[in-house]
Amino acid sequence: MSDVDTSEGKRRRHKRWPEALKREIVAATLAPGASVSVVARQYDVNANQVFMWRRRYRGAIEHPAAAPCPSAPALVPVTITPAPEAEAGTPAATSTPDTIEIEVCGDCRVRVGSGFDVRALKRVLDLLRRR
Fold first, then answer.
1. Are residues 40 and 90 in the same domain?
2. Exposed/middle/buried for 32, CB within 10 Å: 0-12, 13-18, 19+?
3. Residue range 106-131, pLDDT digits in tens
4. N or C: which end of the chain has fewer CB within 10 A?
């Protein structure tokens, strides 16, 4: 009987998991009575990989009081209020008519004027969502 090496030409490929799916799997393991190994089998993931993701997202798990950021775009309420009356000769205190304010995850606000850079704003919002 001879030994045959069948590994020639075969490379092991690592499956890439979308960030939203990783968080969904981690959340499923945190449900009362959930088993990491059972959840891992349901999603066809190695249980050790799920434990690694749980460690990665531990900060978000340990601080559930913070408002979670939605993983998908959602409709949000919008309130339009008149600009505060400015005293004679002084500009409005907080905003100008061409300024919008964006609240991110309930704890950050970004004010954007009409001349903003779209790419820079996207980078800022992405960073704030990851906090």
1. no
2. exposed
3. 777 888 887 878 888 888 887 777 76
4. N
